[in-house]
Design brief:
229 residues, alpha/beta, Rossmann fold, seven-stranded mixed β-sheet, 7 helices, 33% helix
Length: 229
């Protein structure tokens, strides 16, 4: 199957519902991080991809220092610097660390390493901002349909029983390979894990922020290291 670029899967998707959801997610991400950052703050994006979020953020806030980390993607924007790892960043040097649409693909040891690095590099008063897909509730039907259309297949990785369980919020098992799927990801489990090390200051839903989570598509958390909360 022909590989589809990240922007064609998200903010420039041919599917109008997917395009709306991802553009709304990007707008919320920029708005949240902008409000968290004082002048000349440093923002690091974990799993930055080609740097589209940081590029968009930089257009709104040209004063910010923008650093991405993603070992799998070639940078596409000259104004974004890249770090080979979060380990090379100094303690207390980052105002906002973002991890957008990436934690659902991390294995437990990788998530543990991310949270440990976050607690080390975030400045006093700084924040970790996470967004992940909501894979339970009303959004699961359109999401699975979009993947089938995009992949030009009538096959779904969800069985009919798993689809029904997901719609009513009952957990379904995750596949062994987390890199290529969102199946079974549960933001509620992630929230519990993050809450062991961070105070979760606020949560937001996108693209419909004023409805229950099961009616929306993405889940945002603004987190502060417990020692700094």
């Amino acid at each position: 199957m022909r590989e589809i670029s990240y922007d064609r899967q998200t903010v420039n998707s041919a599917n109008p519902l997917a395009r709306y959801a991802h553009r709304s997610r990007m707008t919320m991400a920029v708005s949240l991080v902008t409000r968290l950052c004082d002048e000349r703050a440093t923002v690091v994006d974990f799993g930055a991809g080609p740097g589209f979020f940081l590029h968009t953020l930089g257009q709104a806030r040209p004063d910010l220092a923008l650093i991405g980390h993603d070992p799998y993607v070639t940078p596409a924007f000259a104004e974004v610097s890249y770090a080979a790892s979060l380990g090379e960043l100094a303690r207390g040097s980052v105002d906002a660390l973002t991890a957008f649409e990436v934690c659902e693909h991390l294995y437990p040891e990788e998530l543990d390493a991310l949270l440990a690095d976050a607690a080390r590099i975030i400045k006093p008063g700084g924040a970790l901002v996470i967004s992940v897909p909501i894979m339970y509730g009303l959004a699961i039907g359109p999401k699975v349909s979009n993947w089938m259309i995009r992949g030009r297949t009538l096959k779904s990785e969800y069985s009919p029983a798993e689809m029904l369980k997901s719609m009513v919020g009952i957990r379904v098992p995750r596949p062994a390979n987390l890199r290529v799927t969102h199946k079974g990801f549960d933001f509620r489990e992630l929230r519990t894990i993050v809450g062991q090390r961070f105070a979760i200051d606020a949560v937001h839903h996108s693209p419909m922020p004023h409805v229950p989570w099961w009616m929306s598509s993405q889940y945002f958390m603004i987190c502060r290291p417990l020692a700094l909360a």
